[in-house]
Input
Amino acid sequence: METEIPALLRAREGVFPERFTFHSSRMRMKKVTKEELVAMDGDSDRCALELSDAKVDVMGYACLVAIMSMGHGYHRTSQERLHKVTESNDAPAPVVTSAGALVDGIKAIGAKKVAVVAPYMIPLTELVVDYIRNEGIEVVTWRALEIPDNLAVAAHDPMNLPGIVSDMDTSGVDAVVLSACVQMPSLPAVSKVEAQVGKPVLTAAIATTWAMLKALNLDTRVPGGGTLLSGNY
Output
């Protein structure tokens, strides 16, 4: 999140007058396991309170899998609760989650069937796939990269992604979720994979950026942000 979302907002600054500052508060996690994810989510109220001290205009909660592992539709519960935390500090701010943003972004581009690439171990990836399906989106094919260490997820080479997608059958999908994790870098590969499959490609980071811009009532066109950030949605 601290890498690709600021990169997208910086790219937007090249075509629009708005300027952004980026503030973060960290929920701790080292191994991407269900237990650590639950503990991590429990830290989110503290983070929202800390960030509200800066009176930020919008907050984005990532980790996608932390939200999705808490049960169907939990992104709505989390967003409402964290918004109330900001209100309690007299600094109300809209809250978006990468989980909710990805679901909303898929729907915004009109995709009903998707292929999903995720860095998680298979059981957590199955939770993500089930969560997306519960939101009325068909996950036709998916790939779990099975990277357990959080820092290793961040170090994954995004240019491996075109080859990973080429090994998947995307013929029956409307769009490709190239990275269902804001931690796993993917931006350098988005345009290449869009050209490769001839279909829209989005990621958790792209969707979160889109949702944050929507919450700010700003134009959603971002160079290099793929279909969702083309300014048409």
